[in-house]
Write a structure and sequence with these properties.
156 residues, alpha/beta, YbaK protein, 6-stranded mixed beta sheet, 5 helices, 27% helix, globular
C-alpha cells in the first residue's frame, strides 16, 4: 500500500504522527480541503510530468495550475502530464494520493513558489483519504526537492 511507503518516509523526519486518515475521500483539492476544513489553496497538490524521459513531480498550491509558458521556459519542453497508469508505475502512488513521500527512485521533485505564501500546507500521504499537516519548510526538507520553481498561475 502506498500510504505505508509514505508513512515510512515521513518517519525518517519525525512527521508520521501528523498524518490524518479520513472516512471520506481527499482525492481532489476540493475534497481534501473539505475533509481538512481549510481553503483549497492550502492543499499541496502533486502534479506529475515526463521531462526528457524522466518522471517529474511539481508540488503547487491547490489554487494554482501549470503555466505552460513558464513550464516550457524552465524545463525546455511542453508540459505533458503522466497518465494514471504512468503515475502508478513511475511515481509509485495512485492518482488521488500522489505525494512526494515514499516515491520511486529517480523521480525529480520540484516545489512551486505558489506554496511560499503559506506557513502550513497539506499534501496527500499516499492514499485517496489522507493528508499530512506540515510547514512549507518541512515539505521542502521531506520532499527532498531539487529546487523551487515558478511555473504556476492562479486558477480563475
Amino acid at each position: 500500500m502506498s500510504s505505508e511507503k509514505a508513512l515510512k518516509h515521513l518517519e525518517k523526519f519525525g512527521l508520521a504522527n501528523r498524518v490524518r486518515f479520513f472516512e471520506v475521500s481527499s482525492a481532489t483539492v476540493e475534497l481534501a480541503a473539505r475533509a481538512l476544513g481549510c481553503e483549497p489553496a492550502h492543499i499541496a497538490k502533486s502534479l506529475t510530468f515526463m521531462v526528457n524521459d524522466k518522471p517529474v513531480m511539481i508540488i503547487t498550491s491547490g489554487d494554482v495550475k501549470i503555466d505552460n509558458t513558464k513550464y516550457k521556459a524552465r524545463f525546455g519542453t511542453k508540459a505533458k502530464m503522466l497518465t494514471a497508469e504512468q503515475v502508478s508505475e513511475l511515481i509509485g502512488h495512485e492518482v488521488g494520493g500522489v505525494c512526494p513521500f515514499g516515491i520511486n527512485e529517480g523521480v525529480e521533485v520540484y516545489l512551486d513558489t505558489s506554496l511560499k505564501r503559506f506557513e502550513r500546507v497539506f499534501p496527500a500521504c499516499g492514499s485517496a483519504n489522507s493528508a499530512v499537516d506540515m510547514s512549507v519548510g518541512e515539505l521542502e526538507k521531506c520532499s527532498e526537492c531539487i529546487e523551487w520553481v515558478n511555473v504556476g498561475k492562479p486558477i480563475v
